[in-house]
Amino acid sequence: MERLFKVRHAETLGIGFKVLRGVQRRNDVLSEHGHQQAALCRTALTALRLSEPVIYASTFLRAQQTAGALAEALGVGVNILEGLQEIDTGDWYGRSYAELETHSHELFRQTGHFGFPGGESIDDVKRRARHALTQILSRGGPLVIVSHGLAIQILLCDLLGTDFAAAWADGRYAHANTAISELRRHEGQWLAVRLGCAHHLTGALA
Asked: In the chain, where are the structural domains located?
């Protein structure tokens, strides 16, 4: 049975919390608190005693730094993979998450698809993330992918067959920094084991 772990990167220095950053902030680095979060996440994953895990990170520095902390403890390297990066927010760069929630109707294109003007659509991210995942599933072993908030939610919706608008509305796939989701594939179907779990920030991973 294939196991897939999705981990959101740790907290970063940058333009502030709950602000859309996209590709413009690809080189943001972890804050001191972010390094502490990564250490706690590392402890949680180590406790799961994964056998020969393979770790992937997006092309963004914050994901690579987080993945590096995990890889060190697990005794493996970090593979950088195009396609796992955060959605390109285009003209919405720098706007708040609150605006995204209250003005999301502005982001539905004439085709009916959700997307950022001057950036990517949900379908764009879904295609590239699915392509990236297809490339690495053949590697075997538990896969640990360190990625980003919206990118993770989009891929989870794709794999679990969930409508993105519905998932966004109720926040079911929201990930705090270093939150962990685990999926297992049985007979071709992905099943959720844990979603957005961040118990390691306050206690043991359930």
From this structure: 2-201
Q: What is the pLDDT along the chain (206 residues), one digit of tens a residue?
A: 699 999 999 999 875 567 888 788 899 999 999 999 999 999 999 999 999 999 999 999 999 999 999 999 999 999 999 999 999 999 999 888 888 877 877 787 655 578 898 999 999 999 999 999 999 998 888 999 999 999 999 999 999 999 988 898 899 999 999 999 999 999 999 999 999 999 999 864 44
Which pTM does this prediction carry?
0.91
Alpha carbon distance 9, 94 (integer Å): 19
Say which amino acid occupies 170.
D
| CB proximity list for 92: less than 8 A, separation 6 or greater | 20, 22, 99, 100, 107, 116, 117, 119
Report whether CATH 3.30.470.20 matches the domain 2-201. Answer: no
Beta strands (DSSP E) in 69-148 are 78-80, 143-147
